[in-house]
Each structure stands twice: as C-alpha cells, then as structure tokens.
Amino acid sequence: MTNPVMEGLANARHSAVHLEMRDAYQPSDPEFIAWQKGKRLDPTADRSTWWRPYLDVVTETTARGVVMRRARIVSEPVTDYIKYEYDVTFPNVAAGELVRWLSRRDAADIPLPGTDLWMFDDSSVLFTYFSGVGEVVDREWRTEPDIVEMVSSAFNAVWERATPHEEYKPV
User: Fold this and answer.
1) Beta carbons of 5 and 118 less than 8 angstroms apart
2) What pLDDT sits at residue 47?
3) Which of 18, 66, 101, 151 is deepest in the core (most CB within 10 A)?
C-alpha cells in the first residue's frame, strides 16, 4: 500500500500545505515515547542522528520548487505531545518546510475543516481521520472545487495569523 502523503508530495508541482489541529497524535509512537523518557534531538549533532527518511522527501520536493507549508493550531498551555512536536520540528525547517503555529484562541473565528489535511497544488485535498486518542483511522481524497476552496481559504487565514516556527515559543 502506498502512502498517500508521499504520493501527493511526489506529484505536487507548486504547493503542498498541511493543516494540523489536534493536541495529540499517535500516543504509541516510539519516538514520542522516547522523547517522554528524555530523548532529545541535537541540532548541532551529526545530521544522521536526527534526519528522518521523510525529510529526504521534503528536501526533494522543495528542491523541485514546491512550496511546503505546515500550520499547527494548538491549545495553550500546550500538551506534552505539542512540546514534542515543537522540539522535533527543526529538521522539517532545515529540509525546506515552512512551519507556523497558531493558538486555538486566535483561530476561534476562522471557519475550519473538521479534520487535519494536506492540500496539493490547490486542487486536491487529503483529509485524515483520527480516533479519539489520535491514531489514524482513514484518509480520503477530495477534489470538488467547493471543498478545495474552503480548505484553501481556511489554511490561508490560519497562515496569515500564525507565528513562524522560529519565533513561536510554546506556553
């Protein structure tokens, strides 16, 4: 089975956006568990100690001229999972992904889709559906123009208000 996100990135020509709105994902993730036990990535260490295969895809995608943007809407004070995400975001930025953060309070008046998503080239949306604890349950591609427009409008509103990763400090 192919990974639909990797498929979307491989086929993207000019843009890929990712909207994340949960305060926790996949609590069984071994990397998150290791982080909870004190493991930290060191940006000054050898890149092989923190580079992930996904980041090779990000580098290749952005090298083709695709602009990758990720926006995270988070509750504040943030959860331990969001602290973990913040700590492990520097490799994404190093690979060429633009990342911003927005407090849920500052997003309260933005009409948002009901779930996290990826959108590729302003033409196709990949919705990801999660269980209550944050495990991926299903994904669904949608290409209807009204859905694409709604997602584009929501993402752009979030992006405009959000704080760049380099300036955001989790509280």
Assistant:
1) yes
2) 79
3) 101
Contact partners, residue 96, CB within 8 Å, separation at least 6: 58, 59, 61, 62, 63, 68
Report the number of distinct structural domains present in the chain.
Answer: 1
- Three-state DSSP at 1 gives coil
Percent of the chain with pLDDT over 70: 99
Is 170 a domain residue? Answer: no
Q: CA dihedral defined by 40, 22, 59, 1, rounded to 10 degrees?
A: 110
CA distance 135 to 141: 18
Calculate the CA 41 to chain-centre distance. 18
Stretch (H or E) spanning 101: strand 98-103
Of 156, 152, 162, 155, whose CA–CA distance to 100 is shortest? 162
Q: What CATH number is associated with residue 113?
A: 3.30.870.10
The answer to whether residue 171 is domain-embedded is no
| Domain annotation covers residue 29 | yes
